[in-house]
Amino acid sequence: MLTGKQKRFLRSKAHHLTPIFQVGKGGVNENMIKQIDDVLESRELIKVSILQNCDEDRNDVAQDLSKGAHAQVVQIIGNTIVLYKQSKENKQIVLPS
């Protein structure tokens, strides 16, 4: 689990990122989770935006994505979810302790 200090640090890192995935009418599916998992391995920190036509609640979407990709939800702000997962081979972000 992430501490408050680590979440603050990650939020500041994620601030300038643009969302690279969008969850729409179809909701969360296996293919999307696999792609997000792959991108998290290379980037560690990503934003996912939830489109207006998505039927699911944003908290449910965040939960599904974090469970499927084994990632941490850093923040849900508006219709944007920030996800973090420590990379196995490509560590770039050093979390404060």
TrEMBL record:
Q: Where is the CRM domain?
A: 1-96
- UniProt key word RNA-binding: yes
Quick check: keyword RNA-binding in the entry? yes
InterPro entries attached to this UniProt entry: RNA-binding_CRM (IPR001890), RNA-binding_domain (IPR051925), RNA-binding_YhbY (IPR017924), YhbY-like_sf (IPR035920)
- Which keywords, in A-to-Z order, does the entry hold? RNA-binding
Its recorded name reads Ribosome assembly RNA-binding protein YhbY
Species for this entry? Bacillus spongiae
Q: Gene encoding this polypeptide?
A: yhbY
